């Protein structure tokens, strides 16, 4: 038996890596090390989900002040967001959380190295200092990074990595992309009071999600003030003094204070292995793994965004837990990637689980139940914002295959609905459930007749 320095060496201290490291370190006699070259907590905590959600909260007040007047509140004057105050507090909170992550590792006995590390061979990693360590298992969890198109002047743009540390709130912001990140920041900065233009190269935002739901989100983003344009892209960017001048696909020219590109993310696999180490890398830079997250080298596993499966924190965490079972409990465990619930924190918010109508209809006959309504709260405030709930039901089995919600709190609602969908609940089970009144979500269990069959 070979003597290794560690039982597990993790490269990458984000959601997935930290979880695997501390759970393994808590097992009897397991020696664990983790190397992270940047801040602990990874994309989610440092430059993703967490600061984003705090920005969503901050951005929601602008409409709450207005709405409060319709309920009789005497709100005379709102001076706007104190960007300095908010961004300082946001950055302090992120630092606090980074500290929490470091302590989680420390308290569970994980040895940490604040350095870049790479794979040398099946059981050896090397730090930037040249120091080498051996380990029975190596887990790669280095995440992803923003992907930018190659156009003139692209070095002038921001990505989601920089958007959380702007020194000034942009008055005029251009956002390029139609995915989660682009749409969320379009809503956030509109809520902050910036004038936002969003360029979407295709004919729809949030491609791949249920198109009836995304159409409603898009239309309401527009009525909330986002200048959302389809079929257009940026071809060139120039720096002119304090702002940036773009030329678009139609030859139009316009100046913006800042430009955010949210055009997808790529796995962070550069420099992760010595040339001869032999890890298979896919076309997009992803580390190729089997269903147990095992790479082309038996003792090396990879999880999270680095593997380009589903780029979501809870998935990386589940993959980490499955890895621990597989490697240390002699219990090969893989994830079920079907019916992953997710929320898009646009205004209005969207929550979704299961199949879109388009995909479901391709697989077999389905009944579609939908309801559009003005929630009580908006009705009283004379606000035009509509909510939407849609169920996709299999005609043959009566199973609910998809739930799509566009409403305030849709993310919270869909988490609950996802349990039912995952359990295989039928429309009849939904119908047998008593409504919680008066709520928005009660509409999930009160839809009587299908609006159409597909
Ligand atoms: P997405 O893959 O979701 O969207 C990328 C967008 O950029 C698409 O609209 C795509 O258009 C467009 N695009 C791609 N290349 C170009 C180009 N060269 N020029 C113009 N537009 C382009 O990526 P995001 O960056 O928004 O997010 C990455 C991932 O992060 C998501 O897939 C998601 O898994 C995760 N995430 C999750 C969140 C959540 O759970 N709430 C929040 C934020 C991120 P087209 O549709 O035409 O391909």
Secondary structure elements and pairings:
Layout (H helix, E strand, L loop, with lengths): L5 E6 L3 H11 L6 E4 L6 H6 L1 H22 L12 H25 L3 E3 L3 E5 L2 E4 L4 E9 L3 E3 L25 E5 L3 H13 L2 E6 L10 H13 L3 E4 L3 E7 L2 E6 L4 E4 L1 E4 L3 E3 L32 E3 L10 H16 L13 E3 L5 E5 L2 H7 L2 E8 L2 H5 L6 E8 L5 E7 L3 H14 L3 H5 L20 E2 L1
Parallel strand pairs: 1-2, 1-6, 2-3, 6-16, 8-9, 8-14, 9-10
Antiparallel strand pairs: 4-5, 5-6, 7-15, 11-12, 12-13, 17-18, 18-21, 19-20, 19-22, 20-21
Bound molecules: NADPH dihydro-nicotinamide-adenine-dinucleotide phosphate.
Structure description:
With 454 residues, the protein is α/β, with parallel strands linked by helices. The chain has helices at residues 15-25, 42-47, 49-70, 83-107, 180-192, 211-223, 313-328, 357-363, 376-380, 410-423, 427-431, and strands at residues 6-11, 32-35, 111-113, 117-121, 124-127, 132-140, 144-146, 172-176, 195-200, 227-230, 234-240, 243-248, 253-256, 258-261, 265-267, 300-302, 342-344, 350-354, 366-373, 387-394, 400-406, 452-453. The strands form five sheets. Strands 1, 2, 3, 4, 5, 6 and 16 form a seven-stranded mixed sheet that branches. Strand 17 and strand 18 form a beta hairpin. Helix 3 (49-70) packs across helix 5. The radius of gyration is 24 Å and the shape is globular. The site of NADPH dihydro-nicotinamide-adenine-dinucleotide phosphate has 23 residues, from helix 5 and strand 17.
């Amino acid at each position: 038996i070979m003597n290794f320095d560690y039982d597990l060496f993790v490269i990458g201290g984000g959601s997935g890596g930290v979880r695997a490291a501390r759970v393994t370190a808590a097992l009897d006699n397991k020696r664990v090390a983790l190397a992270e070259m940047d801040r602990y907590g990874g994309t989610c905590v440092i430059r993703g989900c967490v600061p984003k959600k705090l920005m969503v909260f901050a951005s929601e007040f602008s409409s709450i002040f207005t709405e409060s007047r319709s309920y009789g509140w005497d709100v005379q004057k709102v001076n706007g967001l104190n960007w300095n105050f908010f961004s300082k507090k946001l950055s302090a909170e992120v630092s606090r959380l980074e500290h929490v992550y470091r302590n989680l590792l420390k308290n569970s006995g994980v040895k940490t190295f604040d350095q870049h590390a790479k794979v040398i061979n099946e059981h050896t990693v090397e730090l930037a200092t040249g120091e080498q360590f051996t380990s029975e298992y190596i887990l790669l969890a280095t995440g992803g990074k923003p992907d930018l198109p190659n156009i003139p002047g692209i070095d002038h743009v921001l990505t989601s990595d920089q958007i959380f540390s702007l020194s000034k709130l942009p008055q005029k912001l251009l956002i390029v992309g139609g995915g989660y990140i682009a749409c969320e920041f379009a809503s956030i900065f509109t809520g902050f009071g910036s004038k936002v233009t969003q360029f979407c190269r295709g004919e729809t935002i949030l491609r791949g999600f249920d198109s009836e739901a995304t159409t409603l989100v898009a239309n309401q983003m527009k009525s909330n003030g986002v200048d959302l344009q389809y079929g257009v892209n940026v071809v060139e960017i120039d720096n002119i003094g304090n702002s940036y001048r773009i030329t678009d696909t139609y030859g139009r020219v316009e100046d913006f204070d800042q430009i955010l590109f949210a055009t997808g993310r790529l796995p962070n696999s550069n420099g992760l292995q010595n040339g001869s180490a032999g890890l298979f890398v896919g076309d997009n830079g992803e580390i190729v793994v089997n269903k147990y997250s095992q790479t082309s080298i038996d003792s090396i596993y990879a999880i999270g965004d680095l593997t380009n499966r589903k780029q979501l924190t809870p998935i990386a965490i589940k993959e980490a837990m499955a890895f621990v079972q597989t490697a240390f409990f002699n219990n090969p465990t893989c994830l079920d990637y079907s019916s992953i619930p997710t929320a898009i924190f646009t205004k209005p918010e969207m929550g979704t689980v299961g199949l879109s109508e388009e995909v479901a209809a391709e697989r077999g006959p389905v009944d579609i139940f939908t309801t559009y309504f003005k929630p009580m709260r908006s009705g009283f405030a004379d606000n035009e914002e509509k909510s939407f709930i849609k169920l996709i039901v299999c005609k043959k089995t009566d199973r609910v295959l998809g739930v799509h919600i566009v409403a305030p709190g849709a993310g919270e609602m869909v988490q609950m609905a996802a349990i039912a969908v995952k359990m295989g609940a039928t429309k009849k089970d939904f119908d047998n459930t008593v409504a919680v009144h008066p709520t928005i979500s009660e509409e999930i269990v009160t839809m009587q007749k299908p609006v159409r069959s597909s």
